[in-house]
Amino acid sequence: MTGNYTHIVEIVAPSEVVAGETVSVEVKVKNLHTASIYITVTGSVDGTSLYFGGVYHAVPAGGIQSFYDSFVMPGSSVTLWAWSWYWGIDEAWHQDDEASKKISLAELKPTFSNFSVKDYIKV
Amino acid sequence: MNALVAQQVSLNPLVVGEYYYLYDPYTGILYHYRYDPSLGVYALVFATGWIPAPKLVNVEYTDKLKITASFYYTGPAFSGRLYGAIGQKVVTVFDEIVAATSPLSLPDTPTAALKTASVEIPITTALAAGKNYAIYVKIQDAANKDMVISDYLENAVYVVEKVPTFTQFQITDYVKV
């Protein structure tokens, strides 16, 4: 899917994450307009809104801008939704493109570290 | 120290589940590769070093050697065993002579927690008296797959040679018969 003036090129996030781990998200948005426009991104995951820092960028025509946010992986698989917005000549934000990515809950695997012989004695 | 490493090398497959060893003489590290049939490659799963033992424990044939391992654990509830062995260094490989296991159960542990576990190895006549031996421990899962392995401690155990000992030897009496 492509918006009128913006296109979410890619959502960069791991496809599998263990519960409780912080998931970093990058959303890449392309300006489809013939001139520079202001673009911002919002999102949602598991009922929680993502604001990607609440920032907007002036993106030149054809340019691609990244927006970053993160969330804590819940105890089940989730779908991350992202929406791109552009600043119109009516001086208002307009929701434009939409994209999603499924992030599966990874099974916690047994992990051993610093394994060593602590002591040994005759018994 | 050791760690699971995700490096891979392309070698001709030998036997599934068996290790292939590479030794780095400069670092003293022994690399344990295991053939992964799903990937068609040998995967480096452990790297262990031969290190001098911090002490030499004298043991006799009626004794047991209790080895305590410490480690950090993260993960779901785990059932397996702690495996301990006494052996000797043959070139670079640990040649096991006697070994024992003890059950190991760990609860669901979402964040890393320090754990200890012990195993007692009987000192048998398979170990020659008058010699030093090395030790190591490892954790295996319920299917006996190695999960983690310790360094090899060289010269950790000495099997005391029992020689006939006579003391306070004297004539207690003498009579005509």
Question: What are the salient characteristics of this protein?
Answer:
A: 123 residues, mainly beta, Immunoglobulin-like, six-stranded mixed beta sheet, three-stranded antiparallel beta sheet, elongated, B: 177 residues, ten-stranded mixed beta sheet
In short:
The complex is a heterodimer of chains A (123) and B (177). With 123 residues, chain A is mainly beta. In chain A, 0% of the residues lie in helices and 66% in strands.
What do you see in this structure?
The complex is a heterodimer of chains A (123) and B (177). In chain A, 33% of the residues are buried. Chain A contains no helices and 10 strands. By secondary structure, chain A is mostly beta strands. Chain A has a single domain (6-106), classed as Immunoglobulin-like. Chain A has strands spanning 6-12, 16-18, 22-31, 37-45, 48-50, 56-59, 64-72, 78-87, 93-106, 111-122. Chain A is elongated, with a radius of gyration of 20 Å. With 177 residues, chain B is mostly beta strands. Chain B folds into 2 domains: 1-49, no CATH class; 53-159, Immunoglobulins (Immunoglobulin-like, Sandwich), CATH 2.60.40. Helices cover 0% and strands 60% of the residues of chain B. Chain B contains no helices and 12 strands. In chain B, strands 1, 2, 3, 4, 5, 7, 8, 10, 11 and 12 form a 10-stranded mixed beta sheet that branches. In chain B, a hairpin with a 4-residue loop joins β2 and β3. Chain B is elongated. At the A-B interface, β10 of A face β5, β6, β9, β10 and β11 of B. β10 (111-122) of chain A pairs antiparallel with β6 (64-75) of chain B.
